Amino acid sequence: MEAKAKKKWSKDDLLIFFLKNRALTLVLLFALVLTVLEETFLTTGNMLSLARQISANGIIGVGYTLLLASDSVDLSAGYTMCLVGIVSGLLSQAGMPFVVILIVCVLVGVVCGMWNSTIITKFGLAPFLVTLAMQQIYKGAMMLLCNGTPIGNLNDTIVFMGQGYVGPIPFCVILMLAFILIGAVVFNRTQFGRDVIAVGGNSEAARVSGIDVAKTRLKVGMVLGFTISITALVSCGRVGSAQTSLGQDTVMDIIAAVVIGGTPMGGGSGTVVGTLFGCLVIGLISNGLNLMGVNSYWQMVSKGVIILVAVILDVYTERIYDRMRNRD
Amino acid sequence: MKVFEAKKICKNFYRTHALTDVDFDLEEGEVMALAGENGAGKSTLMKCLLGIHEPTSGEMYLFGKKYEPKSPYDALMQGISMVHQELCLVPSMTVSDNVWIGRVKKFSKNGLYDPELAVAATRKLFDEYGINVDPRATVKTLSTAQMQMVEIGRAISYDPKVIILDEPTSALSESEVEVLYKVIRNMTARKTSIIFISHKLEEVFEVANRVTVFRDGHSISVRNVESLTMDMLINDIAGREVGNIYPKIDVKPGQVELEVKNLSKAGKYKDISFKVHAGEILGFAGLVGAGRTEIMDGIYGIDPVDSGEILLEGKKVVNKTPRHALNNGIAMVTEDRLRRGVNKKMNVKMNMTLAYLYRICKGIFIDMNRENTDAENMAKRLKVKTAGIQMPIWSLSGGNQQKVMVGRALLTDPKVLIMDEPTRGVDVGAKQEIYEYLNELAAQGLAILLISSDLPEVMGMSDRMLVLREGKIVGEHIRNDGTSSDKVMSEMFGLTSSVSEE
Questions:
Q1: Which domain holds residue A280?
Q2: Which of A189, A192, A210 sits opposite B368 (nearest CB)?
């Protein structure tokens, strides 16, 4: 038995290296395959369009990484995004200046995030249940606001956020990189970031060490709300209108991206930069399949499979860690 | 006839020896009591019997045949059944459904379950053993004692050869205990053997034929109850050799550092008052559930007190959360390292700096250099054995994880340090090192509150010791005042027999 266990060491090490850097590995793998198969893949145009595609997910991904790292989840993120989008549309129609739109939209997102966390911590409920209910509320509120019809003619600055360029680089890509950078610094270098993983890893130990668990969760909800608002503006700006279908796939994609990126479902650790690579993986799947002319319904199927694999890998990582823990 | 026999059982958890060369045997139809302090090895042996743990070495025999259970279910099928201290019933189901849980097939006709058959079988079983509970009642409407009976009924329903009862009386009133005794006698009359674990020593005399005493993972004695006195039993449990393994250095106590007055919490503790001086180690002895941890939780703000005053250096403080306590200069190393201490996903450094991090922030940013140096120095000072402070915490042994927890508390630079079971699950070497820290910290003028279920330890390391029972202080002893561990034991157990009068 013991001899067997010793043999497995090196194998585990390799596996853990792969599992820890799985997003990077997948990105390289996909990129390599696509470069070989599709000559249009490695063109500047396609690279920029790929970057634009993932920018929205990259922004919300920062908030969502913090959320998952704190051992929580938010199913209502997509509809919150949609609600913010509709609000921005209505305010544009009313001719409000961009600053007002920005402030109101950020407020809407932050308040939604606050509510979610507050209800979860006050009543000690499962985040997935609370946000499942909340998403219906946000969806209803959104439909009530716009009467079920999309709103066009968005404020010019919002359109710029989605479509504009700074030099040769799309503005939304710059925005995303800024969010990732700030997010990574906050996550790794501040007390708040440390509190988040402490709460996610062992909330009881965190509390006993003097960390205010409820407050930390509240802050995470607010940060998530903020990133949702900005993502909503970028996404609406890109299509030039506030759609009622905005954000339908967001939760799915974003959880997949964050988990593939290396932040576990159970919380306790996380990586913002990993999330960027996770977004790249999701983006590459769509981009690659598009280039290869695969039917969009097949794209859904393959995305689902990838996400499933990512979650299985996530659990598997934990199991390997557990096995190593028990061996000690 | 021997029903069960264990020979030279050893069980090691990494470097901890939970059981060493334990011999144990059980006759048909007898009640064998297990006695010993918490962590003496009783439950480890039971877990070996149930197939939860595999013994590191040694052999077990059931009816003379080699016995190697793979799981509690396997043990059950081979005739060993356990009634756990925590009830595990399904509250929403009826009594009879709970008794026959997982065995619905037995009462099925043509593949359809007939609850009436199960009810009839339950009634028959209960009547046979004198259990008086309505089989049709829903479990959640029952009293705790009745639930206990249902649990026992379920254990019997497997027709086991051996039933293990783990503290079955802890939630029962006196009259309910009588009913339990009757059921036990009915079981032994039917040649079922019973292993009875209890902290109430009187019960051993009441119900057992023999008693095996455990201490520090050894089986100390096996005695017939007929020729047993309470003194003998307590001596066996406590052990005689208290002293030189505890390298306590005398420190001249300074001013009063912490004083608490009339601390109370409903259902937990009442009117607790004591003082701790700088440089003094104040020990707390008592059984699990006596309120020691609860009082510390109150002082440290994990579970704030209902009433009473906490004075730190003469100034009144209110600790509603651990943050308040830390800011006021009180730090605590908690008892339950897994649940309340270690963050398994963090590395050694992050675990160590968790509580004091806010002190080294520049603006919102953590001073990473300072964090690294402080953690590095603390790891050196506490002799944490690790390949580096960046290593994951789970790569450390229990003793070294505990050192990290001590480091976490010390980095907050406390005036008062609460140590709740600091040596539990810690190997001998690390234990000695922790004792040395205690000495060193006391010499530096820290006031230390030491809680331990290891009586020789708390007697050996404290300048002064308080004994708690049922949420009240029932004794106070000064180190080397000639108090015997027997006397302390009898205070802990609440005996008013001749022992305590000596």
A1: 19-320
A2: A189
Residue B75 and residue B174 in one domain: yes
Look at residue A3 and tell me if it is in a domain. no
Q: What is the pLDDT of residues B160-206, one digit of tens each?
A: 999 999 888 877 777 788 888 989 999 999 899 999 988 777 888 88
Domain-embedded: residue A4: no
Residues B118, B169, single domain; the answer is no
CA dist B197 and B40 (Å) reads 12
Judging contacts by C-beta atoms under 8 Å, the chain A residues touching residue B354 are 194, 198, 205-206, 209, 211
**B85 to chain A, minimum CA–CA distance in Å?**
24
Q: What ipTM does this complex have?
A: 0.82
Interface probe for B, chosen from A209, A215, A265, A317 (most Cβ of B below 10 Å), is A209
Q: What does the longest C-alpha to C-alpha distance in chain B come to?
A: 81
Helix (H, G, I), strand (E, B) or coil at A117: helix
Contact between chains at B344 and A192 (C-beta distance less than 8 A): no
**Cβ contacts from A onto B, under 8 A:** 87
- Residue range B248-258, pLDDT digits in tens: 888 888 899 99
Q: Does residue B286 belong to any structural domain of this protein?
A: yes
B62 and B133 share one domain: no
Measured between alpha carbons, how far is residue A302 from residues A282, A297, A306 in Å?
10, 9, 6
- Domain residues for the domain of B380 are 268-501
Give chain B's domain count: 3
A-side interface with B, Cβ within 8 Å?
Answer: 189-192, 194, 197-198, 200-202, 204-212, 268-269, 321, 324-325, 328
User: B31-35 and B193-197 as β-strands: parallel, antiparallel, unpaired?
Assistant: parallel
